[in-house]
Fold:
Amino acid sequence: ARHMARRPKQVDWQESESCKNCQAEFGVWTRQHHCRACGECFCDDCSSQRCAISSLGHDNPQRVCDRCAKVHSKGERGWARDESVKGCRACKATFTLTLRRHHCRACGEIFCDDCSYQKLFLPHLGISTQERVCHRCHGKYRKVPGCDPSWGISSHEEESECCKLC
Structure:
């Protein structure tokens, strides 16, 4: 039997007149690039990294935005390693036996309970349950349709719509 190569999946490419991250207008001096993981448009500075995207079948490094690079290059959700962090990323409190580490499910960084007690849905990460997030990610994602628990996801709203806004 012949071995057939696995064909990589293609995400739908979005169109935009400005960078999704820094809002720089695309033109002669600022080129538009598509992240091969999320399909959004970014300038060169915001999409200069490359990594394999095994979930889409890309074993060779592909151009990705900074956020997708973090998610895809460090494994599941880009979580920081426990042993690499001695204190909370927000308040700098030193972790002890009683002051425990908690991962923000959105950014993957490690925080104390006081700095990561809020919860959101994160459909753009494939998470359909309420999960712990840090204050910064709560502020960033709570306004995004589908993320805030007080809104919920309406029957006509696609979970993937959240990713277009992140």
User: Anything to note?
Assistant: Residues 66-73 form the longest helix (8 residues). The longest strand covers residues 58-64. Strands lie at 33-34, 41-42, 49-53, 58-64, 102-103, 110-111, 118-122, 127-133. Residues 8 and 57 are 4 Å apart (CA to CA).
